[in-house]
TrEMBL record, chains A, B:
It comes from the Bacteria. It is an enzyme of class 5 (isomerase). Residues 45-232 form the PPIase cyclophilin-type domain. The keyword Isomerase applies. GO terms for molecular function: peptidyl-prolyl cis-trans isomerase activity. The keyword Membrane does not apply. SUPFAM superfamilies: Cyclophilin-like. This is peptidylprolyl isomerase. InterPro entries: Cyclophilin-like_dom_sf, Cyclophilin-type_PPIase_dom, E_coli_cyclophilin_A-like. Keywords: Isomerase, Rotamase.
Length: 291, 291
């Protein structure tokens, strides 16, 4: 038998992540909804947070009210703990006499640690996870699901934003927020209300000098980073908005991107991993073309 | 039957991580070996790296030769890529005409991506891992093992140090080093030679402004962070050494610490995770008492 007849055809050259992103059609992207997008304005520039009302409706309603009323304007980033979180809010939050009133936001919310998975478009990863029966993406957010219990929740990956709380499960209001800046602390999943994700500008937060007090809180007020303002994008004049699109996480193109990272085919990698962790999946964003 | 006879005894109150560390005996700690400890001296202070000759003997021999001969003194940190790595070495490393000679270090080394697991005291975690058949610790380093293939390797967790290379597997010399500063890039496991771990001072590296060039390299030389010196601890006068001890990872006390993090029993956590990821296990260090 001639060799040509027995040799399998070489596999089609797999595309790199960049080639996949470059080939994305307009419908592979989705624009952020200005009504659920926060702009945190620092001296170093803007940090953009996409909120997740499908997981934490009460917290997101509170956060949008606080942003709309300028609650955080002039406050500060008060905590930077290495390999864990950066946190902001009212530096007098623990001091009942001095803390700033929440305005029209509620002072008491239910814990929103998880929700019914029914009604969510859960795009599952085939990859195994140690923390949850199943992981995947919902509307671009890394998430987990327990099919037996019918529950789903957001996963504490790098860049995810949560609502700080005290010991009581229902003690968060959304006024105190943190972002993950290290190895994913998935042990927090279902122990705290997660409200969204930083989609642009995380590097303005992750580099902040670590606080030297307990839990990475700054010991001196002068060490805190001032927050000029936190605003809802919909409260910002259109010309001053950041026209951001996020790659949709429920498309064949996204699946191809995940596979390109699960099994790297470029010349650098000698051994494709055959696996990807939920929190290692890149979630690309871009400026809307022509804007 | 009286209730008292049927109720199970309450479980013994589990100790917190801090209580466990406080209860550690001197034999639960091990001092760093000065002959395999690097001090990177920055304007902001010292970064301490423990080398892993049991995994990368040729690279560690090269690195100790380079340190002993002052190779890195006056060089710089040239790369800071968010959620990935910070990297240092000869800024002219890619420029054959201008780069600094390696002195007595070798210009060519074998790839040391993994080694025979025989002869290693591998302390396995029971927790499942997506990237490897088994994970655990070897002499305080996070590691993985494939019992079928009889191979073991270091895992790319936060703070792990590796040897940068070009496309060829055997193109690293140890002159170019990086440290993980984000979500563990475990896809690099067995694709690059890992040489050690930062045991103190990681926060001097993780906060460096991110480079704006490709892969987080700095675009301007002025953006680089100068390295005053990288020295072997054994080349430093005893009085100037950092007397560091690391908690041993092969003791019942360490297992208790891992369990305290796998299933948090403090008042904050409402739902113990029942799992811990290799890269979420804390690796405590301390200053040697009385030094």
């Amino acid at each position: 038998m001639p060799a040509a007849a027995t040799e399998p055809a070489p596999p089609a050259k797999a595309r790199s992540m960049q080639e996949i992103i470059d080939a994305a059609k307009p419908s592979d992207w989705r624009a952020l909804d200005p009504a659920r997008t926060l702009y945190m304005e620092l001296d170093s520039g803007r940090v953009v947070v996409e909120l997740a009302p499908q997981f934490a409706p009460e917290h997101v309603a509170n956060i949008t009210a606080l942003a709309h009323e300028g609650f955080w304007n002039g406050m500060s980033i008060n905590r930077s703990q290495d390999n864990f979180v950066v946190q902001w809010g009212d530096p007098e939050g623990e001091n009942e006499a001095n803390r700033k009133p929440l305005g029209s936001a509620k002072g008491k919310l239910p814990a929103e640690f998880s929700r019914a998975s029914e009604g969510l478009a859960f795009h599952a990863l085939p990859d195994r996870d140690g923390w949850a029966p199943q992981v995947g993406f919902v509307d671009g957010f890394p998430a987990a699901r327990d099919p037996e219990q019918g529950q789903a929740w957001l996963a504490h990956c790098y860049g995810m934003v949560g609502a700080g709380r005290d010991l009581a499960a229902d003690s968060s209001t959304g006024a105190e927020l943190y972002v993950v800046i290290g190895q994913s602390p998935r042990q927090l999943d279902r122990n705290i209300t997660t409200v969204g994700r930083v989609v642009e500008g995380i590097e303005r937060l992750s580099v902040l000098a670590r606080g030297t007090g307990p839990l990475g809180f700054y010991e001196q007020p002068s060490q805190r980073t001032p927050i000029r303002a936190i605003r809802l994008a919909s409260d910002v004049p259109a010309a001053e908005r950041s026209p951001i699109e996020v790659l949709r996480s429920d498309t064949p193109l996204f699946d191809e991107l995940v596979e390109a990272r699960r099994n790297r085919r470029d010349d650098f990698y000698k051994r494709p991993a055959g696996h990807i962790d939920l929190c290692n999946v890149p979630l690309p964003s871009r400026r809307t073309p022509g804007k």
